[in-house]
């Protein structure tokens, strides 16, 4: 009996050894490879671009540049925007993007407490990098990684210098700005004032308004009543310009007034073509979109760390009617 048990155990050992050997041989001869560590797997970065406007020439160009660069970098990007400049929807989109835990957010800066709370607290909690685009918010107040867009102070200087070149070194002008005093508008205004203060015979009349069209029209009407011989208007916020020009055109020949603004509103370039604006600051929205995606992908890949806190500036130029016909 003992011999039989011993024989069975020896037979079982040889059978198991045979199957172990043949299985090992198959593994050695196969094309099987050990899986790569997770850090080596090619993962697509999930990005989102959030703006206050959608379907406008300026922001369509931003989106075009962002999509093109995302495709080149192998990233996924979603574009979120609003119709009608709705701040509540804009902030809701930003909060949803944060809670979705995307890899990076490119967002039009909004100089409000609510915006800064989302970027400084909630986005930071999830370690989501924020890049502001076109409109900046101070880094220390928002914890954004960097800014991509026009150098606003220099843009203000350029526009004021063009006014002096066209109008001459004397006259009365209205400096029309948004009463909310957003950071990027403050930079533009400071740039303008740094130029205009060099000319003692130019009188600058700073005027605040809301960005509601009826309020803009009413304020323009009051200004034309108070200053019937006004020589020029500069709209620091491009959203002010259409309503302002509408009221000026109703009261006098618009060609008799020097009018200037920026190109980041859907109606600006058509008004420039019609000769109702003397000049505008032309910006580079497509380059803003492209560069912002490039930088955030480089940051996520550890290629550009840290990003320049002062920002990455895109080109600006003076546009006249002849340039857009």
Automatic annotation (TrEMBL):
GO MF annotations, alphabetized: carbohydrate binding
GO cellular component: cell envelope
InterPro entries for the chain: Peripla_BP_I, SBP_2_dom
Limits of the Periplasmic binding protein domain: 49-303
Source domain of life: Bacteria
Keyword Signal attributed: yes
Localization in the cell: Cell envelope
Keywords, sorted A to Z: Signal
Sequence similarity: Belongs to the bacterial solute-binding protein 2 family.
Protein name: Ribose transport system substrate-binding protein
């Amino acid at each position: 009996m003992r011999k039989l048990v011993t024989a069975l155990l020896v037979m079982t050992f040889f059978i198991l050894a045979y199957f172990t050997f043949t299985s090992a041989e198959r593994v050695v001869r196969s094309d099987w490879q050990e899986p790569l560590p997770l850090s080596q797997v090619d993962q697509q970065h999930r990005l989102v671009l959030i703006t206050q406007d959608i379907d406008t020439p300026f922001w369509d160009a931003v989106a075009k540049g962002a999509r093109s660069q995302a495709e080149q970098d192998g990233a996924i990007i979603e574009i979120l925007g609003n119709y009608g400049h709705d701040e509540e929807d804009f902030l809701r989109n930003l909060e949803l993007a944060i809670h979705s835990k995307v890899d990076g957010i490119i967002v039009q800066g909004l100089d409000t407490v609510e915006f800064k709370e989302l970027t400084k607290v909630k986005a930071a909690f999830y370690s989501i990098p924020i890049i502001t685009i076109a409109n900046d918010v101070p880094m220390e107040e928002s914890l954004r990684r960097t800014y991509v867009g026009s150098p606003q102070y220099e843009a203000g200087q350029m526009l004021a210098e063009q006014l002096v070149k066209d109008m001459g070194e004397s006259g009365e002008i209205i400096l029309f700005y948004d009463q909310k005093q957003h950071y990027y508008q403050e930079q533009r205004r400071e740039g303008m004032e740094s130029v205009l203060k060099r000319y003692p015979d130019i009188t600058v009349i700073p005027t605040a308004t809301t960005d509601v069209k009826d309020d803009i029209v009413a304020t323009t009407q009051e200004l034309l009543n108070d200053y019937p011989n006004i020589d020029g208007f500069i709209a620091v916020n491009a959203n002010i310009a259409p309503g302002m020009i509408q009221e000026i055109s109703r009261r006098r020949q618009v060609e008799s007034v020097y009018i200037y603004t920026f190109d980041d509103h859907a109606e600006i370039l058509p008004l420039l073509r019609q000769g109702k604006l003397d000049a505008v600051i032309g910006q580079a929205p497509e380059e803003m979109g492209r560069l912002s995606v490039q930088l955030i992908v480089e940051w996520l890949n550890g290629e550009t760390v840290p990003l320049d806190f002062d920002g990455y500036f895109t080109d600006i130029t003076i546009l006249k009617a002849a340039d857009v016909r």
